[in-house]
Each structure stands twice: as C-alpha cells, then as structure tokens.
Amino acid sequence: MSIFAFRRRKFLVWLGAVAALVAGSAYSQDVLKIGVLGVMSGPAASWGLVNKYCAQTSAQLYNEQGGFEIGGKKYKIEIVPIDDKNDPKLAVSGAERLTKQEGIHYIIGPNVDTTAASVQPVAEAGGAIYFPYAFQQALYTPPHGNAVLGMIASYQAGPIIYKYLMDKKGVKSVSFVARNESDPLNQRDQGVQAAKKLGLEIKSSNDTYEPGTTDFFPVMSRVVSNNGDLIVLSGVAPADAPLLIKSARELGYQGILATETAQDIKILNEVAGNAADGFICVGGASTPEIRSDYMEKFVDRYKKVAGEWNDEAGTKVYALEIILATLQKVGPDAINNVELFKKEIPDFSMKNPFLKEDKPLKYVGAAYFSQPRQIGVPMVVNQVKDGKFETLFIGSVE
Amino acid sequence: MEQMLVNGVVLAVNYALIALGITLIFSIMNILNFAHGQMFMIGGFVVYYLYGIYHLNYFLSLVAVVAVLGVIGYLFETCFFRRMRKVATREENSMLLAVGTALLLENLALSIFGEKQRGVPPVVTGVYRFGSAFLPANRLLVMLLALVLIIGLLLFVQYTRMGRAMRALAQDREVTHLMGVNVNRVAAFGFAIGAALAGLAGGLLITVFGVNSGVGNFYSIKAFIMIMIGGAGVVPGAILGAIVLGFAEAIGYELLPGSVTYLLILIGLIIFLLLRPQGLLGKPWG
C-alpha cells in the first residue's frame, strides 16, 4: 500500500468523523438539567435515594417519548444527583456545584432542616428554586421565596390524624418518642402542641433515642409504661419505625402506633412482621386502590431503576412532575429565570397524574407560610392491615 | 426495675460479642479496625439472603457467615494490612487504611444491597415474662448463642495452640517471631476470626434489629466506646466494657430522658479516660 493510499484513507476517516460530529450537533436535543441534592449514603440514605430514583424514573419515561415539550420544543431531561451525606457543609458545596458549574435552576431536595437551611443563601444567590423535604416554616415564609416544600409537613398531617383517631378510635391520651435530632425533635414539639390544642392528654414527650440506635427495648420500656392510648413516632425514619413498633408490641403495648411520615410496607413486614398490623402512617400515591395508570407505569419503571418499589416514593413522585408542568405553562424563558416560575405558582393547577380520581395538583401552603410554597401532595393516611397498606382517608392541605 | 435489669443483660451480651472481634484484631495487630461495623453489616446481609430470602436453615446461614467474613478478613489482612505493615513507617497509615476499607465496604453494600432496612423472621417466637419484665424468646435465643460464642472464643484463645500463638503475638511480635511462630499466618487467622465474630454478631442480631447498609458506623462507634472503657486489646476488658455500656444504657433510658442518657455516658467516658486512659483492664504502658 502506497503512502498516498494510506493518507487518503486516513483523510476519509477524518472527514467521516467530522461529518458525523456536524450532523450530530445539528440534530442534538436541548437538555434540561434538574438537580437532586440529598442524603444518599449512611443510615438515612433512603430519603435522598428515593428522591433520585423518582426523578430518574420520570426523566426516563419522558425521554423515551423524545423528551418533555416546553414552548413547542422537546427537551431531554437530565438528572444531576449529589449526595450531601446529611451534612450542611456538603449540601452547600453541592448546591454551589449545581447552580454555578452545572447552571441548574431547579433542585429537588435536600431532605432535612439543617441541610435545607444551609442551601437557602446559595439557591437565592444562584437564582435557583429548590424543593426541600424539610418542615422548618422559615424556609418557605417571606422574605424567602425560592423554597417549595415537597411533601406534607408533620404539623399538617399530625392534627388531622389525631382528630381522626379521637373521633373514630376513642383515643384520649398520647405519648411521643423522637430521634434526638433537630428535625424529629421539632416535629415532636409541633405534634405535642397540636395534640394539646385538640384536648389530648400528653402522657409523655421527653423520650428520645440516639441516631443509629437499633435496640429500642430500653427506650420503649419507658414509653410503654406510660400507657397512652396512642404512641406517636415523631419524624421516624423508615429504618427505625419497624423496630420501635416491634419493641412496643413485645413489651405488651396494646394501643395505637402512628407517625406523620411516609413508610415502606416491605420494610415494616420484614422487620416488624405481624407487630406492624394497625400501624398508621402517611403515604402519597402509593396504595394500589388509588393509583392511576400513569402511576402504575411509574411504579413498574421505578422497580427497574431502583431494583424494587419503595412506598416512600409515593410522596416523592410529585416534585419533578410539577416542576416540568409549571415550566411548560410558563414557557422556555423560565428554564433560566426562576422569577417567571415564581409568578406562575399562585395560579398553577393541573390534574394530578398519579391518582385515579380527578383531583387537581397545585401549589398550596399559603395558610402556613403566607404564600403558596408547597406542592399540594394529597395527604393519604394509610394503615397496615394483613401486611398491606390500606388507605384510611385522603386529606388535603390548602 | 426488673425490665431495666433484663434490658441491661441483653444489651451487655450483644455488645460483648461485637466488641470481642475488634479487640482481638487490635490486640494481635495493633490495628483499630474501623470496618468492624461494616463486617457486622455484611454478616447481617448474608443471613438476610440465605435465611430470609432463600430459606436456608438459620444455623447453616450462620456457618456461611463465618466462611464469608473469615475470607474477607483473611483477604483484608493479606492484601492490605500486611503490605501496609511492611511499607508504612507511621501507625496512622494503617488507621487510615482501616477507615478506607470501612468506606469501601459501606459503599459497596449500598450499591449491592440497596438503601432499605432489611429484616428476617425471628428464629423462635413468643415472649417470656419475668415478674414485670418482658423478654422475647428470640432475644433470649440470640443472647444464649452470643454467650456460647463468647465462652467458645475465650476457651479457644486460652487453650489451643493457635490461641496461644495469638496471645503471644499480642504481647510481643518480635519475640513470637523468634520463637518460630509463623507470625503472618497467625495475624491473618486472627483477623479472619475477628471479622467472623463481627459477621456472627450481625447474623445473630438481624433477627432482632434488622440491618441496613449504613448501620456499620454505629456499631463501630459502640465497639470503640466499649474497648475504651475496658482497655484496648484486652479480651476480658472488652467484656467488661460491654457490661458497663449495656447497663449504663439500660439504666439511663429507664430513669432519664433519652437525650440525657448518652450525654451523661459520653461525659462520663471523657472524665474516665482523663483519670484512667488505659481503660479498666488495660496496662498503663499499652
């Protein structure tokens, strides 16, 4: 082979590569990046990972249809996840990376008060809206306006659940037990206030356990001995709930156990077994009897993304969906300008795509934060019965 | 009061099993195995899959735990720590390596086993009542099995040839080597037993507490507290540390609000270490 033939072949290869590159860029799709910032490792990993898996699942479903349409153009949805390890310092650096390096204006997370509060100045300076799963009211109250609560807060669910139990089950007294961390302790204090307002007798509210505790027998011995009609597991993590329930039942407790947070039925069944029967908790669009076809499709895909379904995801499917639908309504300019997005929030409404019933999905929370800064996730209250979640009632927050 | 005593005994025995493995490794190799809690976690997951998912006999699952964790411990010693001992000039290097192995195992577990809490059905069901105290049958079984393992380990270390070699190695590495003992073999075996003990504790306690990928650090920290109380590298010290911590928790949770209990335990630990840094049974010279 002559040197000229070799060069010609090399030139043709280069030419082909350049042509492919040009063609590729001509047809390349616009990308809409969404950040997910939350705890994805350590004992609380499930909180952030469920956020990530939900966002990735929705993104996959849209991308398979060619992307999500905003202003007549289809955008490929790209999820950028960052693990903050429940550490405020890492949450700040993660938020800086998302807003400054990645140019992202919409972030799902973080998961707890401390990390959500630390992200606030970064999000406000970087022109980003974030959707925390933290309940501290100051995050959502003016002059702050860039945070949107992603789920039902314990101080919203608690009073409704207690009232239901007073009316339907004759509950008259309550004990609280919480993890010794800021979020669960705040939720306990708010729960105690709500219970007092309703006229419930508070049997005890000082019992706490250290993060990472696995043997709850000692702490529950004390709680059970107070013999309240109801024991509230304030802000309980999915890993702790079944162990607390099991300990209470093994100590002979016959009353009702409840929490205002979302739990997973498989974890409850595996760890607590029959002891979980009667346990009351919050769900989203998780029980089969209320799911729409779209939610069923979502659940199937979620199983492929995460390996298995997690009922916690029933409360976390909403964030990406409502971000995209709001952007669609406002138009492409809002992708880089969150002020346009914020203007749309009070009037925005869509059909809840995850529920069988025709219910609206909108931004709520004005009664709590003086402005609508909460996703109107339906308050689905579930009870464990024969190893399955059964929907007790569906409430809502305005 | 009765419940408090029952809780204290159960906690102390469970903690002793956890602390023994880490003490064994520390005494033989002078390495604080930060991955001890992660090895506990892997033991729990082995039982979860074999007994919980594939319905293998529980006791055979525990045998599998010994095999799996024994191999992991052996590989850790031969592949990582042995080389580190040869090339490193500072003790901190092995400590950093130990932290690295803990992070490695935790992240591997998160990728392989997922983020969820896992649990298995109890091996035996029912609840015993002693006066006003409750004791679930499964906790009693776990406690008895843990006791058998602890006694077995103490007898092994005291009366077998390998056990004597391990004790000699713990006292003086160079002299043990000069006495013709294959030091590398004994160290690898000791690390394997320490890892297997951590795994066995995980395999036993998953039937009571369940397990998740992030649980390791919690158990490592508890084990460190126990060996600080009892004396690092002293086997009876680990047991004593477990008894002190188990009863401190049980009494504290019964008589005080939960948050105060651990605050007092940690303040007490600081004061204790200022007065007796070598622990209850440790020697002042190390």
Count of strand segments of chain A: 15
Task: State the CATH superfamily name of the largest domain in chain A.
Answer: Response regulator
Largest sheet of chain B: 2 strands, antiparallel
Helix content of chain A: 40-55%
Percent strand of chain B:
under 5%
Protein described:
The complex is a heterodimer of chains A (398) and B (286). Chain A is α/β, with parallel strands linked by helices. Chain A folds into 2 domains: 31-147 and 318-353, Response regulator (Rossmann fold, 3-Layer(aba) Sandwich); 154-288 and 382-395, Response regulator (Rossmann fold, 3-Layer(aba) Sandwich), CATH 3.40.50. Chain A contains 13 helices and 15 strands. Chain A has helices spanning 3-27, 45-64, 88-101, 113-125, 154-169, 182-198, 217-225, 241-250, 265-272, 293-306, 318-330, 338-344, 366-369; strands at residues 30-38, 68-70, 73-83, 106-108, 129-131, 173-179, 201-209, 230-234, 256-262, 280-283, 349-351, 360-364, 374-375, 379-385, 388-395. Chain B is an all-alpha fold and 286 residues long. Chain B has helices spanning 2-29, 36-53, 58-87, 91-113, 137-159, 161-171, 173-178, 183-209, 216-230, 235-255, 258-275; strands at 127-130, 133-136. A two-stranded antiparallel sheet of chain B has the order 1-2. Chain B is globular, with a radius of gyration of 19 Å. The model of chain B has no long low-confidence stretch (mean pLDDT 88). The A-B interface holds A 40-46, 49-50, 180, 206-215, 217-219, 221-222, 238-239, 242-243, 250-252, 264, 266-267, 270-273, 306-308, 310 and B 3-4, 7, 10-11, 14, 52, 106-107, 110, 114-122, 127, 134, 136, 139, 205, 208-210, 212-215, 217-218, 221, 249-250, 252-254, 257-259, 262.
Topology:
The complex is a heterodimer of chains A (398) and B (286).
Chain A: H1 3-27, E1 30-38, H2 45-64, E2 68-70, E3 73-83, H3 88-101, E4 106-108, H4 113-125, E5 129-131, H5 154-169, E6 173-179, H6 182-198, E7 201-209, H7 217-225, E8 230-234, H8 241-250, E9 256-262, H9 265-272, E10 280-283, H10 293-306, H11 318-330, H12 338-344, E11 349-351, E12 360-364, H13 366-369, E13 374-375, E14 379-385, E15 388-395
Helix pairs in contact in A: 2-10, 3-4, 5-6, 8-9
Chain B: H1 2-29, H2 36-53, H3 58-87, H4 91-113, E1 127-130, E2 133-136, H5 137-159, H6 161-171, H7 173-178, H8 183-209, H9 216-230, H10 235-255, H11 258-275
Antiparallel strand pairs in B: 1-2
Helix pairs in contact in B: 1-5, 1-6, 1-8, 1-9, 1-10, 2-3, 2-4, 2-8, 2-9, 3-4, 3-8, 5-6, 5-8, 6-8, 9-10, 10-11
